[in-house]
Amino acid sequence: MENIIKYFPNLSEKQLFQFQALLPLYTKWNYKINVISRKDMEDFYIHHVLHSLGISKFISFIPRTEILDFGTGGGFPGIPLAIMFPHVKFYLVDSIGKKIKVVKNISQEIGLENVHAENIRGEQFSKKVDFIISRAVSRMDVFVPWVENKINSISKNKINNGIIYLKGGDLKDELTSFPESKVYSLNTHFEHSYFETKKLVYLSI
Predict the structure, then answer these.
(1) Which of 22, 75, 160, 168 has the most crowded Cβ, counting Cβ within 10 A?
(2) d(Cα 90, Cα 77) in Å, to the nearest integer?
(3) How many domains would you assign to the chain?
(4) How far is CA 29 from the centre of its chain?
(5) What radius of gyration, in Å, describes the C-alpha atoms of the chain?
(6) Which of 198, 190, 199, 196 is closest to 2 using CA atoms?
(7) What is the dihedral of CA 73, 40, 183, 141, to 10 degrees?
(8) What CATH number should be reported for the domain holding residue 45?
(9) pTM beyond cutoff 0.85
(10) Which domain holds residue 69?
(11) Beta-bridge partners for 198
(12) CA 127 to CA 146: how far, in whole Å?
């Protein structure tokens, strides 16, 4: 939690409570349903929560923005961002039912009222949203055709609606089809060595 407080010093008491509650809740659920690698739990706040919140360093979503977390897994990046932006609507979808069960239970236990979780394949999601967020579900040239028809044409945030994707490593090859995409290094915001190769990719749709 010290890293969350360090990089986000202006959290409300409610947000602090919600972030603090995540580790014991995910620890409890991970014993029942393996949603996060056991060895990864040792660095839970850095590898999962802080990584997810990298998106909030790129954009501060205005109230009533609607966001689809495509292939949310155990709720990342959707749940940390839903805590950070309580007036933004988040749709968290995943094809694995047991993971959505965890997402629903944790959202309920920490009082998140802006999360709607559904056990479907992301391609089946029929509503149009302002942004699609995800964390390394697939290569961009595979991912973009899945989601580009799910984005509203009218933008209301400071940047155009589109895809905000958390990826790692060398992205040069998979972004050749998207010369208009913008890549940001998360290590400009977070000092920890984990973020040395972590990137945020933004593609306006």
Answers:
(1) 75
(2) 10
(3) 1
(4) 19
(5) 16
(6) 190
(7) -40
(8) 3.40.50.150
(9) yes
(10) 2-204
(11) 168
(12) 13
How does DSSP assign the chain, residue by residue? -HHHHHH-TT--HHHHHHHHHHHHHHHHHHHHS--S-TGGGGGHIIIIIIHHHHHHHH--PPTT-EEEEET-TTTTTHHHHHHH-TTSEEEEE-S-HHHHHHHHHHHHHTT--SEEEE-S-GGG--S-BSEEEEES-S-HHHHHHHHGGGB-SS--SSS-SEEEEEEES--TTTTTT-TT-EEEEGGGT--SGGGGGEEEEEEE-
pLDDT in tens, the chain (205 residues): 999 999 999 999 999 999 999 999 999 999 998 888 888 888 999 999 999 999 999 999 999 999 999 999 999 999 999 999 999 999 999 999 999 999 999 999 999 999 999 999 999 999 999 999 999 788 888 999 999 999 999 999 999 999 999 998 888 888 999 999 999 999 999 999 999 999 999 999 9
19: which 2 tokens?
């972030």
- Contact yes or no for 92/114 (Cβ under 8 A): no
Cis peptide before 77 (omega within 30 of 0): yes
User: Which tokens belong to 82?
Assistant: 């839903």
Written as one letter, the residue type at 132 is I
